[in-house]
Structure formats: structure tokens, C-alpha cells
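Email to the structure team, subject: Response regulator transcription factor model.

Hi all, the expression group asked for a predicted structure before they design truncation constructs. Nothing fancy, just the C-alpha cells so they can compare against earlier work. One-line instruction: predict Response regulator transcription factor, return C-alpha cells.
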Amino acid sequence: MRVLIVEDERVLADAIAEGLRDQAIAVDVVYDGDDALDRASYNEYAVVVLDRDLPGVHGDDVCRELVRRHGDARILMLTAAGDVDDRVAGLSLGADDYLPKPFVFDELVARVRALARRSGPPVPPVLERRGIRLDPHRRRVARDGRELRLTNKEFAVLEELLRAEGGVVSAERLLERAWDEHIDPFSNIVRVTMATLRRKLGEPPVIETVTGSGYRLETR
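Reply from the structure team: attached below.
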């Protein structure tokens, strides 16, 4: 998945982003409402973690506009105010969930993952295909019972292929979902990551290259 963090407290925003990246989640970070709306206009996000009390364009206005323009993105609103009236107000703007500050990071991760599952077609909590079993929440993957040690990017790429259920996933889609906006779109990073992932998955090979289109997990 790809997540946008909108938080004017830069230390907090960067800490959230780093923690989510450690969970194999692609993250972009902005520090004000104007940049949030600009970024969401050309990137596709599963979840937007949105501070309500932003300077400039207020988080409430960002939320309204994101709901109007990007109905598929789920919004997790953060705020220092945690009383019931504030939660009701935030949810009435179109936010999908609400988390008061300070929060426990593990809870934020769990809420982000829960919202991401609602941003697309329903998928099982554990993904399985061709003997591969991937658990996104425990960050574990095995093939035919053999535990595999994957990097964050390898894990994210494999998760996207499993979620496609045998469909073709383009390199551009993998760049969008597994990396953030700082990656060079002309890089060969997808090809390199795919090569190491294939090696770790072992024999028989299960990832097929579809010339001119992308990659998919073989169905047979």
C-alpha cells in the first residue's frame, strides 16, 4: 500500500513515516494542507494520515476536499483534542477513523492496515498462492512451510503480486505501491528486486514476466 502523512510537526511526521516504512509500507510525507492536496492530485493513496490542526489550509478543509476528489482513499485523522465532540466532528467531515495524540504507534499501524483493507476489494488477512503464505500483520512469509527472510521491498512486491490473484502487475504499479515518490521512475530497481525475490522463493519458479506488461504469479 501507499500512505500519505500530513502532519506539520516534522519530527512526528518523519517518525511516523520511518515506522511505517519499517512495515514495508510506501510513505510520502508533507507538512501542510496545500502540499497534501497537491500530492493527492497526482498520486494514488490507500490511506491518508491527516493531522486535523494544520496551519494554512486546515485539516478539516483538506479532509472535505480529499473526500470530494478521492473517494477511494481512507482518512485517519490525528488531533491533540480527544474528546467525543472532536471525534464526532472529525468523522462527520468524512474521515474514516480518528486517533487522538499521543498515540501508541502499534495502534496507528493497525488502524492504517485496517483502513487500507477497506480501500480496495476485500482480501483475506493471510495471502496464499502456489505454496506461498504471506501474513502482512506479522510480517512473515513462507513457501511450502519454509520461512523466508525478505527485505521490506521484496515483501511489498510479493504482497502486491499475491493481491493481484494471478493478474499482471506492471512495473509502474509496483513502483507506485512499494516505493515512494523519491524513487527514480527510470530505475531498474523493480527488475533487481524481482531477481532477488525469485532467488529467495526458490524452485520451481512461480513469478512470470509478461513481456511489455509486467509480472504475475503463475496459476498452474
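Helices lie at 10-21, 33-40, 59-69, 84-92, 105-118, 152-163, 171-178, 189-201. Residues 105-118 form the longest helix (14 residues). Ping us if the truncation boundaries need rechecking.
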